[in-house]
Structures are given as structure tokens and as C-alpha cells.
Amino acid sequence: MRHKNSWVRSACHCLAAGALFGVAGSFEAFAGPPAHDPGPPPNANASDNAGPPLVVVKQGYFYVGGEYDNPTNPTQMTGQMYVEYQIPAKQNGKSKPPIVMLHGGGHTGAGFVSTPDGRPGWADYFVRRGWPVYVVDRPGVAKSSSFGAFGNASLVSSAEDQWSAPEKAAAQWPQAHLHTQWPGTGLHGDPAFDQYYAHLAPAGTAETTPFRVKAFIALLEKIGPAIMLPHSSPGPETWQVADARPDLVAAIVSDEPSGPPFFNVDLVTGAQGALTRPWGPAVGPLAYDPPVSDPAQLYNFAVQQSQPDAPGLIRCWLQPEPARRLPRLAGVPILHILSEAGYHAPYDHCTSKYLTQAGVPNTFIRFENVGIHGNGHINLVEKNNVQLAQLIENWLTVALPASPALARAQKTRGEE
């Protein structure tokens, strides 16, 4: 069956008559050997319906994860995760691995479906090109309702200053003034911002991380090896998932994962903040070699750079040499993308450097280094979202043949 935009969430998650989000991407190798250099995608964003027809052979939803408070006499469930999927027709008789799209804190899966100004999002882009896509609402968010403290939605002023219009706020990070890609003014009263803000949701807390990790693994166990595409806060959880089950992670496309390793940072002064990722790039345990029984073995001995890598960047916290390795992550193809003007711009390179030091190759791309300018943190909904999706797809096409998880799955299915 053919669809112009067949995502079943459109009525609920895109709110009223409009659709919510959209997407984008681009490249640079920073730390660690790159999987390849595909070159920059076209400069202009493609039209709404560019590409092949949207042909879907199966779509629907299901839930994974979730636990009853009392298995014998339950009163409630917590930690369940809503998953919506579309399976496209095979192209040239071959199936592509699925892509799991994981939204960031304070947002919902609607951000991958369409943009605040009504353009198709990354989900449609990839389905049109033969990629099965699974879009989630993380536990405690939107259709993944739960009991317990999962946080509160962001204030209007916070959403404007941090995400949609950082260039208009005072006392921001050094790159904020470069932001130009948001559709519309980025301020309340603008139709695109109003659509965007209407979908925002509780951000969650550190205490909810185990629920999310468990749900992400349950999803992969159900659908088989997949590409994980986290935006922002699920980034650290994705490291945990790939570390626990590298056999189920075909690749990771990490769009501005929460960071930097170990400590938060004041974006204006660069001063060290609270310890929030005690396991380095992750909140929860990772399998280091030599082993770590207590994360204090890591953060109490972390060493900060004496000088930043460049003006406008923070000084990274790394391991002392010889550094412990993360061998279970080392075989997973990893792309780490970073916008020019978002609040991650001063520090995301630290996560890439930390992984490289721990023996985890990754391709790190600052958009401005490949000629893509003006994007903020919520790049997936901005004006050049198709350009960014093209960049991601280019990298996947070259990187996936080297994926151990995918090779094992193909061998099991007799597709060598």
C-alpha cells in the first residue's frame, strides 16, 4: 500500500492538524579512525516528497519492557516503552537493517516523524529508502505512561533559550550566535514553535536510566540486530546497551549524546559541574578492561586537559594512561555527529576522545567542518533535516558491511 505520510502516530503525537518534527545530518573525522569519508551531501534541503514513493508493507505498534509492582497482585506497571514501526518493501529483493530512533530528554518520538513546520522527518526519509524504522516513546513519556517521578516538561523560556532560539538569549555558550537553521523565529507565538512546544514531555531523571536501558535491550531482543539512532540524553544509555549486548547493535549513530564524560560543565564559564556520568560516557556500568567494580576507580583518577583543543571548547576529562579499554564497544561501528551552534558544541568532542582513548574507534563529525552551518541541538527538526539524513545514510551504507552483529545475523539467515 502507498502512503504520503502513513505514520500512525500523526493524529496523536503531531498534535492538532500539524506534524511536529524533521531531521538533518553531516560529517568530519575527529578522534579515532573514520569508517569512511562520504563527503558532504547536497547543500540544499530536498523537497518534502523527494525520493522514492513511501511504500509500506507492514506497520503498527507494540510495547516492550515494563514491570508490575507486585507480580502476584499488581496495581500498576512501570517502565514500559511504546514502539511504533513501519516496514518498507524490499529494494532489489534485499532487506536493510532496522533503525531504532530514540528521542531526547523533554521530547517524544514525534520529533522523528515530522517537523514543527510540517515537513517529513527522518522516519519518512529512511522508510522511503528501504530502511525499517522503529520510533519509540521512552518510558515515562507520551504513550509510554508510567507511575513514579519521571520529571517535568521544560518551561517555554528554557525551550527557547536552549533549543529553538539560543542565538537570541544572553550569556550563552560561545557558539550560540551561529544558530540559523530553526524554522521560524523559535519563539512562542510563532506557529512552528507552538507546534514544537506542544509535544514536549518530562525529561526523566538519572533514576529512570535503568528502565530505559532495559526497554531498549528488550526492543532489540524482539527485532534483532538494529542501528541505534539516539538523540541527546539516550546517548549514554546506548553505550550501556551496546556494551551489554553488542550482538544486537549493528551500528550507533549518536546525535549529540549527553556528555561530557564524568562531569557536567558550566557552558558560559567552562567550570566543572556535578558528577553525572560516573562511568565515563555513561551513567550506569560499562565492562572495562581491566575491570571496574566501583566507578570511583574511574572518576577519582580522571585527568583534565591542561588546555582545550581549540578556542570555545572545554578541557576534557580523560583516563590516566595506560587507559582502561572498552572491548565490548570496540567492534560496533559508531558515527557521532555534532551541530555547529548547539549547546553541545563546546564539549561533545570529549566523548569522542574518551571513546578513542578506551580503544573504541568512532567517526566524529562537526557539521561546520564539512560545510554545514547554523544547526542547533535539535537538528533533526531544522530546515536542512534532509541534508543531515543523507549524511547519515551515506555513512551507514559504507560502515555496515564491517558490522559484526549484522554479519552474524546475515549468516544465521543464510544471506552471506
What brief labels describe this structure?
416 residues, alpha/beta, nine-stranded mixed sheet, two-stranded antiparallel ribbon, 13 strands, 18% strand
Describe this structure in words.
The protein has 416 residues and is of the alpha/beta class. The protein has a single domain, classed as Rossmann fold. The chain is 22% helix and 18% strand. It has a 9-stranded mixed beta sheet, sandwiched between helices. A two-stranded antiparallel sheet has the order 8-9. It has a two-stranded antiparallel sheet with strand order 10-11. β12, α8 and β13 form a beta-alpha-beta unit. The protein is globular and about 55 Å long.
Please give the radius of gyration in angstroms: 20 Å
- Across the major sheet, the strand order is 1-2-3-5-4-6-7-12-13
Mean pLDDT: 86
When the domains are counted, the total is 1
Beta-strand residue fraction: 15-25%
Tell me the series of helices and strands, N- to C-terminal.
Answer: EHEEEHEHHHEHEEEHEEEHEHH
What is the CATH level 1 assignment?
Answer: Alpha Beta
Quickly describe the structure.
By secondary structure, the protein is α/β, with parallel strands linked by helices. Helix content is 22%, strand content 18%. The chain has ten helices and 13 strands.
